[in-house]
Structure formats: C-alpha cells, structure tokens
C-alpha cells in the first residue's frame, strides 16, 4: 500500500458496523458512519475538521495497542490500531458496553441452561432411580412375605422372628411408597409443545458450548439444511439432549485425543422424520461399553454418573423420537436421534407418555 489508499479498502470501511477510521499521522484520511457518529461536531471537510479531535486521540494511541480511552463521547471504548503501511494506521474503536453486554447475555444464557439442566437432571435422576429401585423393592416385599408364611407354617411359635419380619415388610413398603411418590412427581412433568426449529437448536447449543469447543481446539463439521426443520417439543429438553451428546463427544476427544479432533453434526430429513447425527473421531466404544450404553449408572469416566445417555433417551422418547448409537466408519462413534417433523399446518399437541 502506498500514499493512495486502495479504493476497495476505503469502500469496504463504509459497509462495516464497527467504528473505523484511517489516519495518516494525525490526519484523518477516511472514516465510516459508525466512527462519524462517535466523533463530536459536524463532519465538514474531512481531514481539516476532524484533525483536531483526532489529534488528541492519535497521541493517546501512541501508547501501546489496546489503550482504553474516552474520546469525547459518553461510554468506554477500547481503541485499537493496526498499521496498514509505513504511514497509514487503521483505527478501530470497540464499544466496550456492547461487548460486555454481549458477554453478559452469553453468561446469563449459560447460567439459565445450567440451572434448567440441573433441575432437569435431578428430576430425570429421580425418575431413573424410582424406576430402578421399584423392582428390587417389590421383590424384597414378596420375599419377606413368603418367608413369613413359611416360618409361620413351620415354626408358629417364633413370634419374635415373625414380628421382625412384619416390621421389615412395613419398612420396605414405606420405601416403596416414597418411590411411588417420586414417580408420580416426575411423570407429571410433561414436555412443552412448542414449534421448534432443529437447525436453530443446533446453532444455539453450539453457541452455549463455544468456549469448550475452542478450549479443546475441536474442528466442527456441520451439515445442516438451509431451511428450518420444524419439530414439536420442549426446546430446553431437546437442547439438553444435544448438549449431552456434544459433551460426551468432547470428553471422548479430551481423554484420547486424535491428531485432528473432529465433531461432525448432520441434520437430514428422512420422510416425515428428522435425523440429527452427532459424530466424533475419538476412541469409540468397546462392545462391553456398548452393551450397557443406555443403562443408568454405567460410566467409564472417572467421575461419570452414567446417567446422561439414559436421560437423553427418555427425553427423546417423550418426544415420540428414538435415540441410538452407531460406529463411525472413519473411527470414533456416532449418536443419532430422530424426531417426527411437524407439518406446516399442524397444531402443536404431544401425546402423554406417562
Ligand atoms: P457419563 O458421561 O456420566 O459417563 P453417559 O450416560 O452420558 O454418562 O455415558 C455413558 C458412557 O458412554 C460414557 O461413560 C462413555 O463410556 C460412553 N460414551 C458416551 N458417549 C461417548 C463418545 N462420544 N465416545 C466414547 N464413549 C462415549
């Protein structure tokens, strides 16, 4: 670049939303509309009128890059300079309020998701526990009753033992009532029946995990339809499924990192169903793990609860969908979930799945 700045570059400045200006020493060569809005006074002939306010600014910017400055307007701006050539400097004023506001919104979203995810997890955990404990408790009551009958027949005088067995039956029956109440509570929680776009849901879930994806330096390969894919259901629950699958993929890639860690997400329409596929090129799953994959409390992670996939499966089934696993051809594994696509004229209704 020489004294005459490239015309395309000057033109491009005009299209950008960020406040930008090009300086030649203390003199203004070009500025775009957002920068004009920040500077005091009426914009007259460019360099002459703006040289004064920019003079102070440019001197302030003689300090290291990223100096925070107040430039005659209310609000905090961070000024950044990029040398374009020996003479020209591109000046960017970054609105800190906007950036902080955006950051705060992201944090709020994350906090909201964490909160909902925690309460969903507690509720689903209650449901899984109730389901798992119901059977052994029922069997214990039956065994104790049978034992008592046999004891009463063979040793009718063992009154202490018979009384102890009665107490044991009472205690176990009490436990089973508590579990019944937990089941009632968790089964009364039905998914919402909103009209949702699965494509948007993928983008929102990825936005919530962007820090994790960046930290793990994972490459994302997305294959999503251009048009929205409408399904009926509960956005928070379905987001929970997607985030669980993505977190599992991230965990797998972290524990056994390949050369080029990759998560690929594909959403495709298959007749009246939409199928979302989350794959990773991590270590994959052994046949032993696969056999217990969707069973509660089965985990190969040091601190894993082993509830994620069983909860995901029940959330997808609440939406009349299906969740399954396959091996990825190029190595690693892949989780799929399929949901019925909502026809354009359909009014939202979900059958009860209690
Ligand atoms: P947790 O994450 O607490 O272990 P999950 O039910 O989500 O519980 O997962 C159960 C197990 O399935 C994990 O411990 C892991 O062994 C296996 N698994 C799940 N997703 C993946 C994946 N993408 N790659 C490899 N293994 C996985």
UniProtKB/TrEMBL annotation:
Signal peptide: none annotated. One of its GO terms (molecular function) is kinase activity. The keyword Transferase applies. It comes from the Bacteria. It catalyses: ATP + protein L-histidine = ADP + protein N-phospho-L-histidine. Its EC number is 2.7.13.3. SMART domains: HATPase_c, HisKA. PROSITE patterns: HIS_KIN (PS50109). Keywords: ATP-binding, Kinase, Nucleotide-binding, Phosphoprotein, Transferase, Two-component regulatory system. InterPro entries: HATPase_C_sf, HATPase_dom, His_kinase_dom, HisK_dim/P_dom, Sig_transdc_His_kin-like_C. The keyword Metal-binding does not apply. Residues 128-343 form the Histidine kinase domain. PANTHER family: PEROXIDE STRESS-ACTIVATED HISTIDINE KINASE MAK3 (PTHR43065:SF10), SENSOR HISTIDINE KINASE (PTHR43065). This is histidine kinase. It comes from Pelomonas aquatica. The lineage of its organism: Bacteria, Pseudomonadati, Pseudomonadota, Betaproteobacteria, Burkholderiales.
